[in-house]
Design brief:
Elements: H1 3-14, H2 23-33, E1 39-42, E2 48-51, E3 70-76, E4 82-87, E5 99-103, E6 108-112, E7 129-132, E8 137-139, E9 143-145
Antiparallel strand pairs: 1-2, 3-4, 3-7, 5-6, 5-7, 8-9
């Protein structure tokens, strides 16, 4: 894999993008595609479209989606415990043992469920999202593994 493609792949794996909050990863895709595409645009539905030779008779489309599962903070109690609802279709039982990151307007906070004491969020408010900890890990020389 080319170094630039590997860097792009790692960036899209590690950029949070729960349903309804896809703009950060779409920005990564637009920037990467801008280096080789003749045209990069976003339609009114939020789809990122990159075209190479848009006037060609033969057309080929690669389609994908960029949203991930996540959580939306609904309440933080006086002890710092975060209450949230799921974003996207996933089973809450999948949260058991997951490392999560709470994202606020100016701060992020890693949350580790294995810690007995409550998370003390810094500047996390009702409404921001909580995502799985998105760290891509290189395995062997040519493989990458990541949640999302």
């Amino acid at each position: 894999m080319e170094a630039s493609a590997k860097k792009f792949f790692q960036q899209i794996l590690e950029t949070p993008s729960p349903s309804g909050y896809e703009e950060p990863v779409q920005r990564v895709v637009r920037e990467y595609a801008g280096a080789f595409a003749d045209e990069v645009r976003t339609d009114l539905h939020g789809n990122v479209i990159a075209c190479v030779n848009p006037g060609a008779k033969v057309r080929l489309m690669f389609a994908g989606h960029c949203d991930q599962i996540g959580l939306l903070v609904t309440y933080i109690n006086d002890n710092g415990f975060i209450y949230a609802n799921t974003i996207g279709g996933w089973d809450p039982l999948q949260l058991i043992g997951q490392r999560l990151v709470a994202r606020g307007p100016s701060a992020t906070r890693k949350i580790d469920e294995s810690v007995a004491e409550p998370a003390r969020p810094v500047n996390v408010e009702r409404g921001p999202h909580v995502d799985p900890y998105l760290q891509a890990v290189a395995i062997f020389e040519s493989r990458i593994a990541a949640p999302g």
